[in-house]
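## tool: complex_structure
## caller: assistant
## args:
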Amino acid sequence: MNNSSLTKAGVFTLIVVTLCLAGWEMYLRSSGYKISYDDDESLWSDKRDLVYQPSDKATVMIGSSRIKYDVDIDTWKKLTGDQPVQLASVGSSPLPVLDNLANDKNFSGKLIIDVTEILFFSTDMPNLKTPTENVDWYKKRTPAQWFSTKVGHVLESKLVFLDKDYFSLNSLLHKIKVRDRPAVFVFPDFPLEFTRVTSERQCFMTDRFVADTNLQNQVKGVWGFLRKLSTGPPMHGAALDSLFATVKTDIDKIKARGGQVLFTRTPSSGPFLMGEKMGFPRAQYWDRLLSVTNCPGVYFEDYPAIAHLQCPEFSHLTVADAVIYTTTLVDILQKEKGWIFPHKPSGN
Amino acid sequence: MVFNSYTFIVFFLLMLFLHNLPFPWKVKKINLLLASYIFYAAWNPPFILLLWLSTIVDYFVGKALFTQENKHKKKLLLVVSLIGNLGMLCFFKYGGFLLENFTHLVNALGMNYHPAKPNIILPAGISFYTFTTLCYTIDMYKRKSEPVKSLLDFSLFVTFFPHLVAGPIVRPPQLVPQFETARTANRQQLMQGLLLITLGLFMKVVLADSMLSASANEVFNAHKMVSTLDAWSGVLAFSGQIFFDFAGYSSCAVGVALCLGFVLPQNFLYPYAAIGFSDFWRRWHITLSAWLRDYLYIPLGGNRKGKFRTYINLMLTMLLGGLWHGANWTFVVWGALHGFYLWVEKMILDFRKVRTGMITADGTVMTGHLGIQTPKNKTLGNFMLALFTFFLINVTWVFFRSPDFTSAWQMLTSMFSHVPNGAVLLKTINIIKIGVIIFFVIIFHWLMRNTRVLIVAEKLPWWLLGMIWSVLLLLLILSQESSSSFIYFQF
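## result:
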């Protein structure tokens, strides 16, 4: 092959690749899909950097998936004038992140810890895996990784097909239904419409998900699958005492630096809520947590404005209800818990 | 930074632009050197100091070694260089391993000694650049080549970013002369380089990371007996992963250098089509095996000191080659297995040559890698031999990948015996992916074993090459794998 043939092949490649990607992008957009970010360790670390903004502006949120769905970042910004930092991780305990913030002498801002009992009152390795990996990645992040995150962020903000969980080659291949051997552990899929992620790490369900009970039932099926996996009794006795002691130690460190810590219990509904109340009676877990740590808390059932919000799949709020929840939470924080947001726009 | 990252794409485009500006050659070389330091510092900036230390010591020691006439002083200078280079390597790479083994030893002798575990971070690519600088000082000691004229050229030889952290391990005569005259890539070199980069990234990102790594990790991290199907799937997945990971890196390195107008040596030549183990080491990590041959096996006596010493030298070379890969006894056993395979192969070949009267007067056969020659013809018999070699190589990968001997033993037992209650881990789609990829790897390697990818690419019509290139690039973009590290960076 001569020089010009190789160049021809290169130009041909460029045209084919551009056309194919443009076609794929247009197809996804025409099918109603919108931008969603990979909620991975690099995005987490990107947000972790923000906890050092002046302490009177930083409100950091840790927990599991509920606070990621239930706190609407735009509403929070509009009401408080502050940029909240979402550091919660889906399906995980917040304790590794709490420990990381507690031992970071530069962090002295406001901290909201959301409690999903089955994940919070647990030291099972799978529940600690993602936040531990996120913290480790943050600590070991190289300058090159930091820069790659910034570039990736720009690309993800423009291209719908850059969504590793649903449109990567591997995830597309795994959509092919091939029968597995009976003993293989197969985690059921969440429908794409259930989890879209913003650049602020807020999760939201699509309008289609809210309208489609089949999709909601698919997620309810995943909760049922998870319930069958957890066979042991809820944490109790010495293990629970030890967990309370660890949480208190970490919180005391933050408070000693002038930080403020508050717990939230975000809404759940239906059989999910019933199961949580049975497994983790409020007096033994939530009330004791507040008393041991000497922290204020916002339990959704105590406030009529948010007590009856319904979760379509029993565990997370829709975007519309997240706005209501966030508005109410900010109101409670200011009027009842004494939190001050010095940068809030006048009129709020 | 790693080649499979957005950071590298930006860095590389910037480098291409700067390298093609009408600056004087010296300015371009300074530019390349600074870029190489940035490339390295993007991992862990403080470790750049080690690189500087190694460069400066070896440049001046190398010059002195070449000109020194006094034998004792010459030896002393060589010892200084060896202590400097190997000392650094030992501290960072083998410090923890040595301390752990020392602790085991003294505790076995009845002493109660439990030192704190050292928290040593391994500088990226230390094994590679140490070998690069070592071969320079040894060459200077033996006066095998001329000393590098300027510190700038020597620094660039050691630090040139395409080969810096994971090879190919270059020798001074391969690279230094290329720094002496101004060069930029012509259009053909640029396109060839871009094709190699695409192929390399496809191997690393699509095949190693996206298709195979999860399955290999799942099986090897199980730490329990698994079903025979899962065990073999896991081992084959790792077999593919390690090849695509490292060969992918090497292709990228050669391609990146070519885009800048430099030629680096090939590091892989379809190793899974190797017929026998001598052939395998001529095809796998070629620059390392050549280094071990020239700077370890031959100085030990090679096959010039009789049969017994040849076997000992072979084994020593492979044991140290194993240890070079990692500070763990499992790597030593991996090397020992390869040494054993080479022994058996040499015995068979020696026996055949005696029968056919082809053995030399001193009883040795001095052809091929480590003194062993292997067939080249693509016959069915040779294909079966290649398959058998591939089978035996998979056994060695068990020790290479397993974190400890218990896990390795569990894996071997799972592979070679019926395990009634072995864990069933892999989804069917993953087993299919592994099967399809390994099947095509074997076929592709066999078809390509006597040629090179660029030679084949140049024979294809432009539209067909364009189609293949497009598929590689599309799959690469669609795989959306994050910038995971290359396996060989830890070595």
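## assistant note: The longest helix of chain A spans residues 3-30. Strands of chain A lie at 59-62, 84-86, 110-114, 196-197, 203-204, 260-265, 297-299. Handing back to user.
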